[in-house]
Amino acid sequence: MKLYNSLTRSKDEFVTHEPGKVEMYTCGPTVYHYAHIGNLRSYIMEDVLEKYLSYSGYKVNRVMNITDVGHLTSDGDTGDDKMLKGAKREHKTVMEIAKFYTDAFFNDCRKLNIKVPDTVIPATSCIDEFIRVIGVLIDKGYAYESGGNVYFDTSKLDKYYVFNDFDEEDLAVGVREGVEADLAKRNKTDFALWFTKSKFEDQELKWDSPWGVGYPGWHIECSCISMKNNGEYLDLHCGGIDNAFPHHTNEIAQSESYLGHPWCPQWFHVRHLNTEGGKMSKSKGEFLTVSLLEEKGYDPIVYRFYCLQSHYRRALVFSYPNLDNAASAYSKLVQKVAALLKATGEIDEAAFSALKKSFADAMDNDLNTSLAVTALYDVLKADTNDMTKLALIKDFDRVLSLGLTEHAERLSVQNDSPSEELPAEVTELLEQRKAARKEKNFALADELRAKITALGYSVEETRQGTVVKKL
Ligand code: AMP
Ligand code: ZN
What we know:
By secondary structure, this protein is of the alpha/beta class. The chain is built from 16 helices and 15 strands.
């Protein structure tokens, strides 16, 4: 498989330290608010990557942190503490906020068919480990105490800016323009490993340490949680593109200085989902969450389908008309799959292998999910029997996780006769009803339901989506 690697800036052959085994790390969510659908784009694409690696025969060990301490609004050492901000907003404690939004995150993941990583670790459960690693970094001369805090000394590295997608000058400007220049730092790119001299007087979570009572910086979390749970050699590190600098850059600096050898050779970054107005935000404009999409009448899986239709290395602009197109394409796809459900007979092995190969070729080419979706459509059009088509759809869906057969089973007419596609008239009315619900025109939605009932079908809204049955 070839995968674009942000470190080398090229599509490289995917390799692992130990044959057949992938140690994979994902930066987890900062649990001060709901995840927006941009965050979830990153998790969907990482989920597809993990599933494709498993599908290709690798044994994957995937680790993710939950950031419940240390992440400031600037991603560096300036700005507000995100968790504290969330707690104040909701008049709750930081831990209450962390629990609530961690649960909400996994709830969203479940709705989007995102598998929970093998190991998920909240940063607050690893404070002793952070303190131990920071101690080693100080002993090795890579970190220093200054002004009450502990900082990583970036001047000790031969190369600090490792992701050459970035222009060193541009980055330096960003650092220089930091609102509160931290005079305690020896170099402008140094970053905090441990804060004791907190600028947040009401800092809720703090722990004792050899350098005084305080709390860890955000970057050290991921280095420590990965090194402890993935081992000394990480194969693949993932995150949204905004994490590349300073977060991942700092993770590499700390981990390699601690280990004394290269740490992770492959970096997978997902470009952002933006709104038509620009950057996706939790505070400005419409806060786009999975629940909001559900309220508007969309099945969350349609959003997954929407994401898979474009390449993870392209920025994606979210729009409702595009989501509507995905919804309509998804429902047609499910209807086609429903028509295959009662297939019997033998699988045509030659056709199966040929069609599977085009799916694998797409995925092997830098996780080209949009071509993989095309390969799925090609199956439906292929000149082979229904049994083979159904087997292929199930096979691809181990990776794409679009819930195609599950949705098809629900949608298929649930009586004892062989499954059949819904009449076009019913499908059309269902689409109109969906649009009416989205616009919260419930009177019209009820009218349309009555028309569908008159044609001999019942319609029911369930957590899994709309279920249509023959009366
Ligand atoms: P956070 O909760 O802010 O720590 O972010 C969680 C994940 O979402 C990280 O991997 C971010 O890089 C990623 N992310 C943030 N904004 C976006 C976006 N607009 N589109 C895609 N991924 C994003
Ligand atoms: Zn991280």
